[in-house]
Amino acid sequence: MLYLNQLAQFLDQFLLVQRFEHDPSGIYHPSNRPIRRLGLALEPWPQIAKWVAATQVDALFLHRPWKIAEEPLPTDIGVLSYHLTFDERLTLGFNPLLANHLGLFSLEELGYKAGRPIGMLGQVSEQTVASFCDRVQHLFRGYEAIEEGNLTEVTKVAVVGAMTEALVREASTKGAAVYITGQFRQPARSTVLETGINVVAIGHHRSEIWGLQALADVLRDRWPDLEVILPPS
After folding, report:
1. What is the rounded distance in angstroms from the CA atom of residue 224 to the CA atom of residue 11?
2. 149-177: per-residue pLDDT in tens?
3. Which partner for 191 in 42, 70, 165, 170 could form a disulfide, CB atoms 3.0-4.6 Å apart?
4. Distance CA 172, CA 124 (A)
């Protein structure tokens, strides 16, 4: 039988919470209820209590749990919360799971924040930028914008949870032809134009959705008998 503290122990290790001393993570609302069904969501929404009842989940994972008090749940429903850890490990940062889906290998860290890597540089089999961007669009089911550069072939890709002149220049200097990030930041535009790098802005919410689905797959692999349920899209 699976319990909330076991889930928390696994996620603490998987999401490297020891790197995030000032970001509360783990059990947000305790429970001793056995977990057969686990609900995953980015944050509470007005009908979450009805969804919990309808799906009969025994516990919840919430990326942003702070408004859960506005939607009262049964007191024996446990809640796990991972905020910054989730963003940096499962969205657009140093994310080996995402690298695998993008076909990246030989990963290097790129960019740091408080001593933590916030991005990755990876090699990819030689292909056109257009072909690779099609793969990105399919994986994330869209994107916010693409800023096309003058590089048409790609063998290296940067995936970074931020966009500054320095980060774009570092990625370009190290051979990246594509820079994937959440939002296109205008202060970096001049460096983008200078280097000719291609920028794909996924959108923060879209990257979070991908991360939530990736986490669901990880948990299903770890506990094949656990039913992991995502909310309606």
Report:
1. 16
2. 999 999 999 999 999 999 999 999 999 99
3. 165
4. 15
